UniProtKB/TrEMBL annotation:
Alphabetical list of InterPro entries matching this protein: Gfo/Idh/MocA-like_OxRdtase_N, Gfo/Idh/MocA_oxidrdct_glycsds, GFO_IDH_MocA-like_dom, NAD(P)-bd_dom_sf
Cited Pfam families: GFO_IDH_MocA, GFO_IDH_MocA_C3
Residue span, Gfo/Idh/MocA-like oxidoreductase N-terminal domain: 2-135
Official protein name in the record: Gfo/Idh/MocA family oxidoreductase
Assigned keywords, A-Z: Oxidoreductase
Domain GFO/IDH/MocA-like oxidoreductase: 144-261
Entry keyword Oxidoreductase: yes
Record's signal peptide: none
Amino acid sequence: MLKVGLIGFGFMGRMHFDNYVRLASEGEPVELVAICDLRIEELKNGKAAGNMATEQEVYDLTPYRLYDNIDAMLEQEELDIIDITLPTPLHAELTCSLLEKGLHVLCEKPVARHSAEGWKMAQTAKETGKTLMIGQCLRFWPAYAYLKSVVEDRRYGAVNAGYFFRGSGLPQEWFLDGEKSGGCILDMHIHDADIIHWVFGKPDQVSTLARNVIPGSGYDTVSTNYVYPDGKVLNAQADWTLGGDYGFSMTYRVNLEQGNLVFENGELKVNPNDASGFVAELSPDSGYYHQLKYFIQSVQAGTPVSVCTPESATGTLELIEAEMRSADERGALVSL
């Protein structure tokens, strides 16, 4: 039985919590035993806002051992896995320390605040022989996994063009400190940049237009064009300043030689050029669920992860850093 300690109990921590509970109930060899957060006494009786609904508003944490100090949790618990859902600047040093202590680590995206830290994390995992996976959850999201399979097996030919978008209202607290979160371009837009990297490979160049709307928050709205040798036209946009009743959206449209895929409002429509369109049959479970299940099974079997490796996630962070440099130069082409 793999024993898990969860560090961070904000929105993402609760999302992971929900899925650990479900996976354990389904017979996966995992048990969440401890939760650590500096504000655990406050958070255990409060709500955590996010762009998707968690299973509960207020959680009953009485079955779990609670800590407000990481060292205390590590001293008093016998753990196999640590799940990190802390603010981005805290990822690198903590991850390396935990790996060196002999623990497997699942670390939320982005891998780190800067790519140099991401490469250090990847090297530490390699040296210690422990499993490190980065929570780029869209790689496990059914609609995006379907897209990757279509591109790889070329059932509708080569890709001509694609467009990706995600947007929401403003996040809260540390997210609006650009020095910590990296702004929308690093925290939100990185999801679609990661899918572009994962599905199509690294582009040769990027050109990014971006704007700071909220003082101090970094780039809040972003649009990037990705340049590939074969000339396909790819663009990804993100905006977390969509107010009013907008809510949250994640969509894509990919046009291929023999058809197109359109994902919006949680439904993936496949439109072959020579046949009737249809709605793809996808798992109803979120990428968070599939991600944690994959990670647990990999650790249990002692097999390396091949999805969301620290090396690949750091490559995506390098892509975002190139986009930031392009945005700083008002859309200048930046080579990778």
